[in-house]
Amino acid sequence: MKVTGPGTSSGVPDVPDAAPERPASRAGAVDRSAESFAEKLEAGEARAAAAAGAAGPASQAERLAADIVADLRAGRLGPQAALERVVERVIDSQVGAHAPAAVRETLRAALRETLENDPFLAEKLRRIQDV
Q: What is the pLDDT of residues 31-49, one digit of tens each?
C-alpha cells in the first residue's frame, strides 16, 4: 500500500461533510424510518434509563429490607438476626420460598461466604454490629 503526501491524490474520492437530507413523506413531515442508527440508539438508552430509575436495584433492596431496617433501628433485632433475615429474604426472592432445601442451603452458604470475604461488605457489617 502506497501512502501519498499532502496535496497529492490518493485515489479516494472526496466525501461531502454534510449529512444527506432525510426523505419527507407526502405531507412534508420527516420520515421516521430514515432515522439514523445513533438517534434510535439514544432513544432506546433514554427509555432504558427511565425504566431503570423507576424500579432500580436500590428500590428493590429497600422493599426487601425496609421492615428489617426498622426493627434493627428500633432495637427489636440484633445485627446478626437482621443479617440472617436479609439472607433469607434474598434466597426467597431469588429461588422462591418453595425451592428445594439443597438449593436454598447452597445459596445460603454462597451468600454467607460473600458477606464474610468481600472487604466492602465485611466493613459494612462491622459498622452495623458496632452500632
A: 555 566 666 667 777 676 6
What one-character DSSP code corresponds to residue 24?
B
Q: Which of 45, 47, 38 is nearest to 19 (CA)?
A: 38
**89 burial level (CB within 10 Å; 0-12, 13-18, 19+):** middle
Q: What is the pTM of this model?
A: 0.50
**Distance between CA atoms of 121 and 124, rounded to whole angstroms?**
5
| pLDDT score, position 53 | 56
Distance separating alpha carbons of residues 124 and 37, to the nearest angstrom? 44
Cα-Cα-Cα-Cα dihedral sign, residues 112, 116, 121, 125 = positive
Give the pLDDT band of residue 55 (cuts 50, 70, 90).
low
b/e string for 11-31 if b means 16 or more Cβ within 10 A? eeeeeeeeeeeeeeeeeeeee
Q: Are 35 and 29 in contact (CB under 8 A)?
A: no
